[in-house]
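Running log. JK asked me to keep both predictions on one page so they can be read side by side. First protein, sequence followed by its tokens:
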Amino acid sequence: MQKKLIINLSKLAVPFTSRGRFKSEKKTILRNDFQRDRDRIIHSTAFRRLKHKTQVFVNTSGDHFRTRITHSLEVSQIARTLSKYFNLNEDLSETLSLAHDLGHPPFGHAGEEALNECMKKYGGFDHNIQTLRIVNILENRYYNFNGLNLTFETLDGLIKHNGPVNNLTKFNMILGNNFFKNKIKFDHNASLEAQIASISDDIAYNSHDLEDGLKSNLFTLNDLKYIPVLNKIISKHKNRFKKYSIDLIIRQIIRDIINDMVSDVIKMTTKNIKSNNIKTLKDVYNSNKQIVCFSNKMQNFDLKIKSFLKQKMYFHKSVNTKTNYGRKIIKDLFLIIKKKPNKYINIKKYKNSNIERIICDYIAGMTDRYAINLYKKIK
């Protein structure tokens, strides 16, 4: 167990009453502003589609591997744990965690690379900015506004969960100039809740990609022993190999990895707040350092896991064969649809977008299986 907090981090939390939305709405006694944001995300079409979008393995590869939606739920669980421990705005961290991958196209990062190539002459494609298009423009569920009309704090967290944004060129090309009407301070640091969502993303995909890789036999526990911290964790379970199934042992090891990483974040965040004299929310925004982070030792561990997964999993032949097929599907669909866009898309419902961006939005919104089935049908 961690020691009791010395600093009252509730003073650093984003207030539960938002500073506003682009379209003013009446308050409700049932939910605070960020619970409403969270519920809008959960009920969105884009969120449901994450069920059939690739995390690492193409969605048709197996029923037990992570998809974008299970990954988002796991990020949310870790973020809520950290936010609650620190007495921060748990609802905001949860909202950001659930929404952070809404903009991913089918076939994971291979799909993103393919769409970015297709859109090279038209502003490019970026899944983080696509998330902002979805929540501000593309979701259509309300009479009085396009998108989900999320709070400024949620939009701020989605924009800056990976840190301040100093170059707005791609934002302007994909969303339009001054889209956020000076409501977002791009060069300021993100809230602690957004920083927590970001590091929870790292913890979730590292640990769970390891589990999926082990269960798919792309590598073994023995391969992981060459990573020092992992070797120490695995060694703790060596006396249980004869008594328990390998599946159960893997699950316990993954639990230990998550626990160690979360504990490290708690320790470092508390240390950073004290050493940087962070006393108010304004101090958080004005800080030029990431406050929620790993220690140097854990950061090195994190990088070694990423390097291992890249070599043994992400670039594995069996994974690449399917993701390369996905890359081809997206490129071919873009060219086919561009020839006769009205045949596939209701162009009239899109406003202030060129035809290439409309096609990009359409393809980015597809699930893996929808893209595969459409490709087979029209190629």
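And the second, directly underneath as requested:
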Amino acid sequence: MAKRISAIFFLTVIFSVFAVLCVRFATGEASNLTLTLRALVDGKISAQLEQSANENMPAYPLLHELATDVRLFGGAAEIDGILVGDTMLMKNVQPPDEEIASKNKQSIIDLAVFQDHPTYVMLLPTACAIKQQELPEYISLFNQRSYIDSVYTEMSGTVSVVDTYMKLLSGMKEYIYYRTSDHLTAKGGYLVYEQLGKRLGISPLRTLDQFDIDYSDDYFYGNLYKQLPVDRVQPDRVLMYRFSKYRREYQVTHYDQGESRTYYTLFPEFITDLPDYGGEDGLILGGLSPVITLKSSTSSDNSLVIFADETVLSYIPFLLVHYSDIAIVDVRRATPEELEAVDLEDYNQVLVGVSVDTFMHEDMHTVLSNYLPKIKELSAN
């Protein structure tokens, strides 16, 4: 029965697509569309159909889903750079932009050299590297493991490296990455925290029994699903781990575009004016701003600056158990004016923690160079 329903659905999709194409041909507006079986399977027809529909049809979202279904039925496991796994979507991370990656690497090394605090670097693998069991064997993936190892080798002796690859791999069958977003879940963040804590010199909590676990009220579809809606992929839900062994008070201050806002909780889910409210980005800390300063009522005098991307939101609630002050700097977009809220001299450790995708493809040098006076002087001359 299930096979019969699938066959009927597929035929319906094919008929719908064909009908739309016939209308386009009849009106003389589809001369650039080539209808062949090969084009249907490799996605050319659906890509042309999507473009035509986007330009001319108000029902584009529905047609977009139909085109996606056609390509998946034809055997496609990757569409527009998004990998379609058994139960989840993943970004297919590409090889590095060598110029960007080289500048980022040198900036991290310079940061370690030109300031006195211990400096750590952590490149986090993405879902497609850890969750390969979700994908067909014929899918070709960039070797993130090998690349991370090579970068760490070049940095060794100057920067302390934090290798989380095997730790995350140990949780490959668990819900450590969101199904519809390219971010780590809180469970994935806990694995990162365990490995990171050892390198930072703190004693990570061995179990989660000192935390109360809450779930977001609503399920959500993340950024990957919005680009590629696939019916079989289920929505996500945010898990929030609240440290409960001791009472803690928090102050979370965001600096963004000349304005600031402060929350007194790590999970301001009850606030309706949060950016990106309704997804994972808004519920933890209130989202990732260019600069965030966090204060905790712990008796510890540990303090840390994290140059980060969105991955920091997954492990920051655990790390705050051990630190009284943490500053988070979005290493891709913080401006010099926003960086005035963070003086490295006020902290005793520095971490550069980003996904390997961010490291390979996004400019981190511009933000990091604000803390490198010698480099700025040379640039001025």
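Observation for JK regarding the second prediction: Residues 2-76 form one domain.
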